[in-house]
Amino acid sequence: MTKFKLLTAAISAIALIIILVWVQGGFHYKVPGGETKLALEKNAKLKTVKAELLETAGDVTVSGTILARDTARVAARVGGYVVELKIDAGSVVKKGDLLLKIEARELDEREAQAKAALESAKVDLETSKRDFERYKVLFDEQAIAKKQFDDVSARYEMAQATENKARSALDEAKTFLSYGLVTAPFDGVVSEKDVNQGDLAAVGRQLLAVYDPNSLEMVAAAGEQYAPFLAIGTPVLVAVPSLNTKESTSIRDIVPQRDEKTRTITVKAPLHESKVLMPGLYGTLTFKTISAPVIVAPVSAVKTVGQLETVRVLDNGAVKTRHVKIGRILEDGKIEILSGLDPGDEIVIEQ
């Protein structure tokens, strides 16, 4: 009985192993690893071009954004309701122009109280002055005691101090009241309007932004490997694709600190004033490096899926898919191939 059970168990184990091998494809034909190959049909018409070695001019193009070097973000200095609004985004303003008015009733009341206090102080000062002058004559004639004269002199000095303090309080009240009149800090263009008429402005809240159109510049991030080719005064070409504009300029400033995450350095190049240019536009900045030979292929031949870039090549009569790493987009619809292709490889561009 024991032998029968052992035999049954052994047969079951063998059967289980056979099933596992079958499930894992052990009894099926396996395709060997390697490049993906597509059989070339006899009547298939393939259009190919050869990967070529091209001597480039060493131009490098990086992306950037147009920004204004001189931008003022105007915030409320007093709290209150916006009762007048004279500008909108895009408005051209001159230095000192009234942009908006904030109504602050407590400041009006404060000014009125300061005026009343000053008038009262002036009256007291006039009275004290007359008493001082009268008592001085009597003191000089030795008609009154020195203590009486000293008391009158002290009251006169106190009245002077009170009048000065009241005058300063009125000046301060007028200054705070003037904060309700928001004016343009310089000649420029309103780039942002963050408040509407009737809104409640809080102290420190941004109301609007003004930029100087003469201070527009291209700010771009370039890979740190290009640092040897970038210096203040280096000629660059700035292009704005959306406006189809190009402008030759030079680097004005290089931010000394490098971005540790992106491994880039920031360069800035000034632009000439233009009615069509404005902060926030996308652009490119092109500069020259050392001329060098590179492998190029048609841009249309490169397929991108996620972060994978591939091209199809014709090799020994079969179409194969190659993984490549691309670089710069060059002229005439060509792209730089950093790895994955050799000069002379047949690239399939149409089937």
Structural class designation: alpha+beta
Total E-strand runs: 24
Average predicted confidence as pLDDT: 84
- The end-to-end span amounts to 71 Å
Number of domains: 3
Question: What shape does the CA trace take?
Answer: elongated
Radius of gyration (Å)? 41 Å
* Element-by-element helix/strand order: HEEEEEEEEHHEEEEEEEEEEEEEEEE
Determine and state the CATH class of the largest domain.
Mainly Alpha
CATH architecture of the largest domain: Orthogonal Bundle
Uncertain runs with pLDDT below 50, 5 residues or more? 29-43
Q: What profile does the largest beta sheet have?
A: 9 strands, antiparallel
Give your account of this protein's structure.
- It is a single chain.
- With 351 residues, the protein is α+β, with helices and mostly antiparallel strands.
- It has three domains: 37-58 and 292-350, conserved putative lor/sdh protein from methanococcus maripaludis s2 fold (Beta Barrel), CATH 2.40.420; 61-70 and 212-288, Efflux pump adaptor protein, beta barrel domain (Elongation Factor Tu (Ef-tu), domain 3), CATH 2.40.30; 76-209, Helix hairpin bin (Helix Hairpins), CATH 1.10.287.470.
- Helices cover 26% and strands 38% of the residues.
- The strands form four sheets. Strands 1, 2, 3, 19, 20, 21, 22, 23 and 24 form a nine-stranded antiparallel β-sheet that branches. A seven-stranded antiparallel β-sheet has the order 15-14-18-4-13-17-16, with no helix packed on it.
- Strand 21 and strand 22 form a beta hairpin.
- The longest helix has 36 residues, at 105-140.
- The chain is elongated and about 140 Å long.
- The model is unreliable at 29-43 (pLDDT under 50).
